[in-house]
Specification:
Structural class: mainly alpha
Order of helices and strands: HHHHHHHHHHHHHHH
Shape: globular
Distance between the termini: 48 Å
Number of helices: 15
Helix content: 55-70%
Largest sheet: none
Oligomer: single chain
Radius of gyration: 29 Å
Length: 422
């Protein structure tokens, strides 16, 4: 039986045309530049206008290439995260076994694995069995691609405009590609790695799956040892205290920053976990994603970030509560974890605002944020509160007869209860 053709054949042709145009522009650019300048007049103003036009076209092409490359790089990471989210809680390998259809186990072709576009070209269905593929796969890929793009713009192209203690220095696209700034690139890679982990934890909790220990070890290991090797990964220290008398004061400050972040994340995660009702028996995550994610926030960004992320995540979870109830997801599994992911993105993009304007790290602003967090915690607790019914009270022990209830067999034999004769 022939397989039905995809209804999105036009998308394949559109992608092929865009790729061919991009490669053609790249290869023919020297010839285009020579022809464009040769058509200018001899006067200086006309030639300068032509040069400005060429520079503008060149900037657009470089920007398009840069943004496209980083988006699909992040989307490719998101495609791998989809595999991690599905396989690691089940104890399966994420390296050697190729991607397959979850229904017919058919091995996916290389073009089916293209992030976002592969799902679109298939029309959201398996090429072989034509069963629907969840739209969550391209959404995760697109979300990671956008996170990589936003961090590229703020932390690399704008010279860390979101980072405390960094003066925003806008770089041109050509300069950003040619003059690699190791400090900004290392911070960018550090934060991209963090958000990849947060995406995994949030969606594993949403699926009510088991939190894999290996993922936690890898996350905390990199978050603890990488700043010890490159102290510039921590733009904010644990306090204003300096250790000038020590031989390696920078790494000692990094060590204390990591320890304070872990302690603050552990306490905050344990308290946040109490805001939601107790997990159901089918929830293998046991709400452990909340403290795991908040410990990672403290480890990667410092203890000051824990308060801000906790407050924002509680506000986001309150806004998501009506949507959760509309979906009849009464256990709220994964809701606070998704909120923690979103709040972490918002915090990193506004990090300088929280440190410089709000003044996180000082006593009075911390107390205000803590008071707001407590208020939001009580509101979320009230919205998600559910009455607990002990069903064991209504269950009669096996083989025991109640002294007050009548014998059903006696009632049936005396005609009180009509017998079923059908």
């Amino acid at each position: 039986m022939p397989r039905p053709a995809s209804r999105l054949v036009w998308l394949r042709y559109a992608i092929a045309v865009v790729v061919c145009l991009g490669m053609g522009a790249l290869l023919s650019w020297p010839a285009f530049e020579m022809l464009w300048l040769s058509g200018s007049d001899e006067d200086f103003v006309s030639r300068q206008n032509r040069l400005d036009q060429i520079q503008w076209i060149q900037t657009v092409l470089i920007a398009g290439f840069l943004y496209t490359w980083f988006f699909f790089f992040g989307a490719t990471v998101g495609s791998f995260l989809n595999v991690v989210i599905w396989r690691m809680p089940r104890g399966e390998t994420v390296v050697t076994r190729p991607s397959r259809c979850p229904f017919c186990s058919t091995k996916l072709a290389w073009n089916d694995n293209v992030p976002v576009l592969g799902w679109l070209m298939l029309g959201g269905r398996c090429r072989t069995c034509r069963l629907p593929i969840s739209p969550r796969y391209p959404l995760v890929e697109a979300a990671m691609g956008l996170i990589f793009l936003v961090l590229l713009q703020t932390e690399v192209l704008q010279g860390g405009s979101n980072l405390p203690g960094h003066a925003a220095i806008a770089l041109s696209y050509a300069r950003a590609m040619l003059e690699l700034k190791f400090e900004m690139l290392s911070i960018y890679a550090f934060h991209c790695y963090f958000f990849s982990l947060m995406m995994c934890w949030a969606l594993i909790a949403w699926d009510r799956s088991r939190m894999p220990l290996t993922l936690n070890v890898v996350a905390y290991g990199v978050g603890f040892f990488a700043p010890l090797i490159w102290p510039e990964l921590y733009p904010v220290a644990w306090s204003d205290s300096t250790f000038d008398s020590f031989h390696d004061a920078a790494r000692l400050s990094v060590f204390l920053t990591a320890i304070c972040g872990i302690v603050a994340g552990t306490i905050g995660g344990a308290v946040l976990r109490l805001a939601l009702p107790k997990p159901e028996r089918t929830d293998a995550s046991h709400r452990l994603g909340i403290p795991i994610m908040l410990v990672a926030v403290g480890l990667y960004f410092g203890w000051q970030a824990v308060l801000a992320v906790a407050a924002m995540s509680l506000a986001i979870a309150i806004l998501l509560t009506p949507l959760q109830k509309a979906r009849q997801r009464v256990d709220f599994a994964g809701s606070l974890e998704i909120a923690l992911l979103v709040a972490s993105v918002v915090f990193v993009l506004s990090w300088k605002f929280w440190i410089a304007t709000v003044g996180l790290g000082q006593l009075i602003p911390n107390c205000v944020v803590l008071a707001v967090s407590v208020l939001l915690w009580f509101i979320l607790r009230k919205l998600t509160w559910q009455a607990e019914v002990d069903l064991a009270r209504f269950q009669r022990p096996l083989g025991e007869k109640s002294a007050t209830s009548p014998d059903l067999q006696l009632l049936a034999s005396s005609g009180t209860i009509s017998e079923n004769t059908h």
